Amino acid sequence: MTLSTIPPRLPPEVSRTGISSGLRGMAAESPVSLILWFALALGAAWILPDLISWTLLDATWVAEDRSGCDPSGACWAFIVNRLPQFGFGFFPPQERWRAAVALIWPVAALAIALGPAFRGRSGLVAGALAAYPVGATLVLWGEPLGLRGVGTAQWGGMTMTVYVGTVAFVLAFPVGLVLALGRRSSLPALRVLSTVFIEVWRGLPLIAVLFISVVMVPFLLPPGTELPRLALALVGITLYTSSYLAEVFRGGLQSLGKGQAEAAAALGFTYWTAQGYILIPQAIRAVIPGILNTVVALFKDTTYVLVVGLFDFLNIVNAAVADPHWLGLATEGYIFVGIVYWCFCFLLSRVSARIEWDMARGAAREART
Amino acid sequence: MADVVSNVTDRGVPVSTPSAPRRRPRRRWPWAALAQQAAAIALVAAAFAYLGTNITRNLAANGMTGGFGFLWQEAGFAMSFSLIEMSESSTYGRVFLAGVLNTLFIAGLSLVTATVLGLVVGFARVSAARPLTLAATVYVEALRNVPMLLILIFVQTVALRSLPVVREAIAIGDAVYLSNRGIYFPWPEPGQDLRLALGALVAGCLGLVAAWVLRPRTPVLVRRDLAATIAGITVGVILLVVAVLNVDWQRPVFRGFDFRGGAKMMPEFAALLLALTLYNAAFIAEIVRAGLQSVDHGQIEAARALGLRDGFIQRRIVLPQALRLMVPPLTNQYVHLIKASSLATVVGFPDLVAVFLGTSLNQTGRAIEIVVMTAAVYLTLCLGLGALSAAWNTRVSLKGR
User: Fold this and answer.
1) First CA to last CA across chain B, in angstroms?
2) Where are the domains of chain B?
């Protein structure tokens, strides 16, 4: 490696004609391109003034009900009035701080994970996330902590979305890891069991999974057991997510190559110590972008819980646009929902792309030295 | 020397791992491995046995019976859309069949439209014309980062409901009418003999396929190939025109309170089709872009140095290599699309999940049978598609080296 005399490969010159030769010659200066720019500018000039006056200039931000809104602009007062409900669902107003804790907990963990590094950061983030399913359930429910009990029927809004997404992710993580190890195991029985499990859950639509878990899980429990719908839906989403995570982890384990496992075995590591200290940490590091992509998909998929009657962020806006005091404001409501989802998903997908890019650069540097 | 040459041509093209046929030496498993597997199987069997007894006890407690006999019972509800004859006296078995066909119909149709739109947007994203790139990027980034369910609900409640009422429907060339009650379009007059038209349609399609198979494959045009292709296209197009003209089309006409004649696309169906198309096209466009950009630029430069025309380079050098990388993620996206078509439940289109896993299950209470049948349909579709893609992948992947 060090004796190599072949000069490093230079990046290729950026081609102006591009790869799509069907559009060959449409360089930035070509007449066709100019016409397209002109058409784009014309479209923008046609739409933008109306759009800006509707969303901002003629919009009403404060009003008591629909009649207080200027009909020529957007009625953002609807969103402003309902913001606590969109955030915390039907939580009793004096207990909303608990919903806020459950809402901010994973967001703060994510912010710490993406922020500047410090000693013990990964331990803190992992601990905070691992404690979330039990911790957030206790805080929201409240009864075991001696607080006022709030039933799952009153949970909702963004709190519900974040709760469902985080709990499903945290519970699915270890299950997915075990399934991935099982699928790569040298023991055929384990391999077949894991593969069947993964493929069945991945092959079903999440809507069907939710229906099935709400209908079937009560049959599977000992007679007389009653679980809230939220818990039943969580079982389904967790199993569904775990099979997707298992495939991500499997990709990571496969990318390591045989050398790592063989070297560990040569040093006297057993199967589990080799997995725990050498293979799994590297595999997870290698698939962080894949994990983040799964999180984005999971966050978008939590909207499906509306089919089993849970009021997540989208469904609570759905219910609010049917309010007779604010009738006919579906456009404003759904635009608001769209912007919130878009910001979160775009941010996470950028982070994922950034990590991927950093890792590719690191790999290229290692390959050179 | 040979090594160097192969390295150069290989550069940048991801080579799939060579799968050399390897004979694993037969060895006996140590007892520990057998014990572990037996323990795993025993654990799973115990779990199944426990859940099974719970199921039987729960069924007995609710006074429910099992079995597939309900499939021959009358369902007693009508479906707003079906490809086969359905009425309230149809059986649950027929409801299942109609649901499967509806799911295949909406999934198949949106698969085609999403692929076409995705290809257009994907090519626009890598085109040299920057306004196109900009527009395509905005489209992809805007749609990829919102839930598909939101797009669906938005299309249904905001876009389609803002269409005019039937009386003031938007007319497109006196043949297609858009209204908030649905989209009306011409349809063959019922009761006429369509055999000739269908025959011409099939023959025309065969002609076009033949033209595609016989298309010139060399950079130097061979006159015989070209003649065959042109003849194939001409005959195909003429036959298709004959097929269309041979049918008595019935146009929708507004009479009284609604349109008469022609056919109508339900707003639920239109919303689902539109949402599935728009959302999945954004992902397909990304797959197309990644595939096209993964082809090493050296390939294009080498082809230009050989004097090949750009259209030829695109078709015969860039696309085949890009396609090899595009097919696995594309299949994945198709599986996503098929699964997402079950969102039909939300807008009220009667797909398999809505009429079978929803209504039929509520009415009969045969949870296990219905769940197993529904799961079997989706698993067959999704795993089948995956198996097809894997087979294609092994056929086209670079061999050996």
Assistant:
1) 15
2) 92-192+248-396, 193-246
